[in-house]
Amino acid sequence: MPFLALFLPDDSCCIPEKSIQSVGGKPLIAHTIDQCSESETFDDTVVSTDDETIKRVAEEHGGVVPFLPPAELATDDTPAHLCTSHALD
Description:
Shape: globular
Structural class: alpha+beta
Distance between the termini: 16 Å
Strand order of the largest sheet: 1-4
Order of helices and strands: EEEHEHH
Strand content: 15-25%
Number of strands: 4
CATH class: Alpha Beta
Number of helices: 3
CATH topology: Spore Coat Polysaccharide Biosynthesis Protein SpsA, Chain A
Largest sheet: 2 strands, parallel
């Protein structure tokens, strides 16, 4: 079951709430989830976020959000391997 994991912390350093900002009439995250679905490469697009709004928007657009990560893993500078390990546990 191949899946793509997206790590989207709420505390973006440059653009507040960038994952849910509207781009071309839909949230930015929706474009990513749509592209993953259309690729037919992945069974699921798993989204890891510490933000309930991002979680809701991701789920509304077909993303799978099975958990909210701990705060220490939800920063822009958290190494990807730590987020990946947590997501797979």
